[in-house]
Amino acid sequence: MLSISLAVSLPDEEIELTAIRAQGPGGQNVNKVSSAIHLRFDIRASSLPEFYKQELLRLKDRRINKEGVVVIKAQQFRTQEKNRDDALERLQALIRGVAVVQKTRRATKPTKGSQQKRLNGKTLRGRTKSLRGSVFE
Predict the structure, then answer these.
(1) Domain count, the chain
(2) What is the C-alpha separation between 34 and 16, in angstroms, rounded?
(3) Element (H, E) at 3
(4) What is the pLDDT of residue 87?
(5) Cα 89 to the chain's mean position, in Å?
(6) Alpha-carbon gap, residue 60 to 50, rounded angstroms
């Protein structure tokens, strides 16, 4: 069971974990051992609440394909167990990130004091530049 929050958890049957060979350097070991983990999680077929499903499908994330399947490849560590834990943690973080509702931004106006300060600064800068003109005018 992968725990998302106090009320939401995912059964292990909904998460497909496959061991594959890792890419990159590693000597002979990389050609013999399948230490990387390929995680697949179908959002639409899962037992997640509808809110989570809609928010996940709305995300513009390269890990979520057009069919609504989350694909995570974990190959950072040398052991399969650590890579499995890493992949599950990344899936958990992705789903938890959707649950956080961002506050809507309210546009604010600059204060009268800050507007006046800005205009005074522009006036002073203009005076300084006007004194740089030629003396013979």
Answers:
(1) 1
(2) 16
(3) strand 2-3
(4) 92
(5) 13
(6) 18
